[in-house]
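Researcher: Structure for this, please.
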Amino acid sequence: MGMGDSLVGVTHECDYPPEALRIPHVTRSNIPAGLSSEEIDRMVSSNLSTQGTLYELNQPLLEALAPDIILTQRLCDVCAVAFDKVQDVARSLSSRPRVVNLEPHSLDDILENIRTVGNEIGATRQATEVITSLQQRIAAIENKTRALLSRPRVFCMEWVNPPYCGGHWMKRLVEIAGGVDALAASGRPSTRIEWQRVVDFAPEIMVLTCCGYKLARVIQEAELLSGLAQFHELPAAKTNRIFATNGSDYFSRPGPRIVDSLEILAHLIHPEIFRAPPMDEAFSAVDFRELAAARGPGR
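Model: Predicted structure, token format:
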């Protein structure tokens, strides 16, 4: 919306656009680096039940930055500082900032959040222009897939160990892109599911959208699939239609790049209709033979 100069603080996760990396970080994670996905899942569950949050706010830095508005979210405690903690800290700041909660459960909600932010920061016109542009891109895909007779079964996997399905907007993205994800939790958080449900669904395409992971780490996570029962019998495995994506940059973040995610999905599901979008390090087919060779003999 052209209001980047008004941004005085960001979270430790804010890395886009590149200019965001130069803005003071006001949060930090309590999750140590180097953990496996299974260990992260276990620590997340434990910390949320005992401490209620996985992240900390730098209150002295916030005081020095003196924000007028704090944009936060109550959608997912796994992804950001707990909403109650944000409110408590905001009340203690001398600048008395207004706390604006963004809580999108769907694709339409994400677009409406852009309008909300625009209204809050005095950029209503710019927000409307951004929304219109995104809607046009969405419509361009939907117009091509609406009349499709063949809609392949797609499983968008938000976590590998343990398995999680996609949540909130993922089911709708797959539908617009011309597929069917019967395992996704529409309008609700991603949830842990039994692997047998995946086997029974028999996906023709699997898209790994691991929350918080860049492409290289998601490719590593894909290797864990080989150890799951009946994995190699899945249609997606037999036809080599298993893809890793940069879940952190695209599918996990409810912002303008969610439409980039839709364009990625459209290409992966119907490459005969949609060209690969021009995005570096966004997605990759998973070559399990190559992964096995990289492990070496006996491993």
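Researcher: Any notable elements?
Model: The mean pLDDT is 91. The CA atoms of residues 14 and 20 lie 6 Å apart.
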